[in-house]
Amino acid sequence: MSEINCEETKRQVHEYLHNELSTQEMEDITEHLAHCDSCESDFDFEVLFNNVVQRSCDEAPPAELAQRIVDRIRQMDSGRADH
Ligand SMILES: [Zn+2]
Fold this sequence. Notes:
Elements: H1 6-17, H2 23-35, H3 37-43, H4 45-55, H5 63-80
The structure holds zinc ion.
Zinc ion binds at residues 6, 9, 32, 36, 38-39.
């Protein structure tokens, strides 16, 4: 299991946006963004996700990864609706 920190996330976010990372790296960053308030507010997760989807239009993103991202956004939304 790999863990990345905020610095690495911020360093790799451009590659993330350009869809230049491996599936594993994408997952690591997605996971970090989903759980890190600091990075999430820095990078507005939904904007990131929209960018990734747009960039991936020609290449069709791994459906499984896209589904996981959507699931995580939903989890975050339900968490927010709670307070
Ligand atoms: Zn972070």
